[in-house]
Structures are given as structure tokens and as C-alpha cells.
Amino acid sequence: MKPLFPFTYAKLKAQYREALNQEYAVIRCCDYVNLKRNGLPPKTLVNRVDIDFSVKKAGQLGQLFNDLGIKATFFVRLHAPEYNPFSFENYRIIKALIQSGHEIGYHSEILDQAAIWAEDAAACLQRDIDVINKMFGIRIRGVASHRGMTGLNNLDFWKDKTPADFDLLYEGYDKQPAFNLFQEAFYVSDSEWTQWKCYNKGTLVAGNTQRLGDHVKDGHALLYLLIHPDTYFERHFYEDEGG
Ligand SMILES: [Zn+2]
């Protein structure tokens, strides 16, 4: 029988511990670009967090990473109906993530905003990058495309553009040799909310719902982990009541 409620913070923390016990170097996406050029550790786990809905939960993940002494890249949305990254609490949390040494990237919805606002997509992206940089006093190095409910795939924006066009190092799924992480790694994601899924060098491993903690025992030299704060909870999924 499947264990009940596998996506608690405590169980996630235990799996990162297993990765550390297996001697994985847990790194940010920007570190991957640098280390790919200069030599990757024998076992590397690229630690990516897409903040789809909850900055508050992202803050809890940040604390979890700080407890373990590891870093992550958090991708932040700017136009989400679900959160305002510049609200009193969310700005405070994101600033704390930055101060703890985590990387902030932009979780972009470029084609969505271009379509909804009838504006130029590239201009939207450049403005968004400038806004994040100005607001947090940083220089972001990467974007990752969010897939929402418009039916548009924001990744399509990159078909005829490169991150360097925007003074960036990478896009989360880009295939330029300097990154090309999804194609070269064993990719593990919680994006199905109640179970894990994985891709081996870009190909879905159908039916494989093994946990991160299982995959780290398989000794893949390069793991690309994507998690979403919204997936995790202390006791159960419905513990955050609105109102
Ligand atoms: Zn997303």
C-alpha cells in the first residue's frame, strides 16, 4: 500500500538528507552553468523550485534548505492572480531567500501576458526582468517558463531567441550546450501534486512514481529536481484554510 500523505515537509527533508548521504552536491541552476564549464561534481543535484501559488510555502522550503545547508533556485511569478510577490509578507520572504544565498529567477508567462495585454512579448520579458532586478536589488541569471491555463506554452517564446538576448545565462528547459540540463539529466518532478514523475534524459519514464529519495539511491550522476512549494504541507493538503 502507498504510504499516506507522502508530501509532508518532514518527508521531503528526509529525502534531501538521503541525497546528501549519497554525496550529492545540491546546487542552484546558475551554479550548474558555471560548473558545467569548469567540471561538475561526481554527483550533482540541481535544485529548482517553481513558485506557482504560494510564496509562504516557498519560505518554508527556504527554511528547510537552510537547515540542511543547501541552496536552491526559486522561480517567482510577477503576474499571478494567486500571489503578489511585492506584498508585505511575500517581499519579506523573497528577500530572506536572497539573503540566505538562494537564487531567484523569473517564472515567466511571457506569451500569456503578450496575448492578454496585446503587447510585445520580448518587451514584456525585458520589463519583467528589470522590475525584479530593481525591486530586489539583484541581477537574475535565469528564467523558467510557467505553464498556466491560457493554453499557450510560454516555452514557445524561446524557439527563436536565446537567454543571452536578454543578458541571461539560461532558460529552465533550454537546449543550448551551455545548459541543456533537461536533456542530459535524470529529471524528477512533483508536478503531478500527489505523486512523483521522472524523465530519463528528456524521455518520460512511464509509470515510474518513485520518490526523490529512491532516485538518489540509483546513483545518477546528474539529477534535475523540480519541486513546487504548493505540493507540501505539515500534516495534510487542506491545512491552509482561507478566510
Ligand atoms: Zn509554474
Topology:
Elements: H1 9-21, E1 25-27, H2 29-38, E2 44-51, H3 55-68, E3 73-76, H4 88-99, E4 103-108, H5 110-117, H6 121-136, E5 142-145, E6 170-171, H7 181-184, E7 186-189, E8 197-200, E9 203-204, H8 212-215, E10 222-227
Parallel strand pairs: 1-2, 2-3, 2-10, 3-4, 4-5, 5-6, 7-10
Antiparallel strand pairs: 7-8, 8-9
The structure holds zinc ion.
Description:
- 33% of the residues lie in helices and 18% in strands.
- The model has no long low-confidence stretch (mean pLDDT 96).
- It starts with 8 loop residues before the first helix and ends in a 16-residue tail after the last strand.
- The protein has 243 residues and is α/β, with parallel strands linked by helices.
- Strands 1, 2, 3, 4, 5, 6, 7, 8, 9 and 10 form a ten-stranded mixed beta sheet that branches.
- Bound molecules: zinc ion.
- Zinc ion (ZN) binds at residues 50, 52, 107, 146.
Describe the structure concisely for a colleague.
The chain has 243 residues and is an alpha/beta fold. The protein has eight helices and ten strands.
